[in-house]
Amino acid sequence: MKAGRKNLIAIICVFGVMGMTGAAFAAVPLYRMFCQVTGFGGTTMKADKASDTVLDETVMVRFDTNVRGVPMTFRAEQSTQRVRIGETGLAYFDVTNTSDKPIQVRASYNVSPEQTGPYFQKLQCFCFTDQTLAAGETRQFPVQYFIAPELATDREAKGARDITLSYTFYPSVDAPKA
Q1: Is the residue at 113 inside a domain?
Q2: What angle do CA 159, 35, 48 make, to 5 degrees?
Q3: pTM here?
Q4: Phi-psi category of residue 69: left, alpha or beta, with phi > 0 → left and psi -120 to 50 → alpha
Q5: CA distance 121 to 48
Q6: Peptide bond preceding 113 in cis form (omega within 30 of 0)
Q7: CA-based, 20 to 30 A from 45: which of 31, 34, 125, 139?
Q8: Is 29 found in the same domain as 73?
Q9: How far is Cα 107 from Cα 171, in angstroms, rounded to an integer?
Q10: Could you read off the pLDDT of 34-82 as tens digits, one per residue?
Q11: To the nearest 10°, the Cα dihedral for 81, 147, 42, 164?
Q12: CA 80, CA 166: separation in Å to the nearest integer?
């Protein structure tokens, strides 16, 4: 091989490695954005206003609470709610810091079955924002939501009448290290 051709192959390889490295770093934020826009993977949608249409069909919404790596208790005041499709629901969650120090936490959520994610619309939520709880503090967090009427006509999600909204609290990314 000639030196010019070897140099061209080396340059292509370097750009290929740089491109793959850039794609690896961009994959997580791009996937998160894709899920939030499409509701893929059970990601719920944020709504600006309540539904104008309320159907006679009902859905049972179950609330699941989890804690990862923080000294706290987290529970839903009601484990289930039956709501009409399109009707606004309101659920309350109680959170207690069980340690003797303040903690900074953040909650994420998911909906299952995943095909119902685009239809679970939140009007108010405590998720994805840092919450600081003083030592021993108990706080109540509301979630206001509705199930979009389009659920009733979606072929894949049409029969889904049990939906689970699952929240997990974990240490905030910005929380000071112990």
Answers
A1: yes
A2: 80
A3: 0.71
A4: left
A5: 9
A6: yes
A7: 139
A8: no
A9: 9
A10: 555 554 544 455 666 777 788 999 999 999 999 999 999 999 999 999 9
A11: 10
A12: 12
Residues 95, 12 within the same domain:
no
Whether 138 is in a domain gets the answer yes
Containing domain of residue 153, as a range?
56-169
CA 135 to chain CA mean position, Å: 27
174 located within any domain: no
Residue 32 and residue 71 in one domain: no
Q: At residue 9, does pLDDT exceed 90?
A: no
Q: Identify whether residues 64 and 101 lie together within a single domain.
A: yes
Q: How many domains does the chain have?
A: 2
Alpha-carbon span 87 to 53, nearest angstrom: 8
Instruction: Label residue 8 by pLDDT band (50, 70, 90).
Output: confident
DSSP 8-state code for residue 173? T
Q: How far, in Å, CA of 126 to CA of 5, rounded?
A: 58
Q: Rounded to whole angstroms, how far apart are CA atoms 111 and 158? A: 16
